[in-house]
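Hi F.,

I've been meaning to write this up properly since the lab meeting, where we talked about keeping a consistent format for the predictions we share between groups. The idea is simple: the sequence comes first, exactly as it goes in, then the structure tokens exactly as they come out, then a line or two of notes. No screenshots and no reformatting. I'm using this chain as the first example so we have something concrete to point to.
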Amino acid sequence: QVQLVESGGGLVQAGGSLRLSCAASGSSFSINTMGWYRQAPGKQRRLVAAITSGGRTNYADSMKGRFIISRDNAKNTVYLQMNSLKPEDTAAYYCDAVASVPGGQRHFWGKGTLVTVSS
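Output, unedited:
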């Protein structure tokens, strides 16, 4: 099993910034891609950004230029720097880790951290 613990969420005014962190622990499995998803009330969970162990990144179009994902492989930690936040960024943000397990790959999820952006 891989345990993921997110931190850094909170309340911020529009235009402000927040930095989310997600630390992975508890497993000898090799973690490949780590990423962030978000889910607003009544909506589906959607990709925000992802980063491979080699540093290749992928962003949802609406986050490009505002959000930056980074990763410390030695600490098995992924970060999401969120700038120029908008009220529509309000959501629960979930950390995702894709690990190589016997038989293939598996997604592991954190419990989420809430980000609220006030107008």
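Notes:
Residues 99 and 105 are 5 Å apart (CA to CA).
The chain has a mean pLDDT of 94.

If this format works for you, I'll send the rest the same way.

G.
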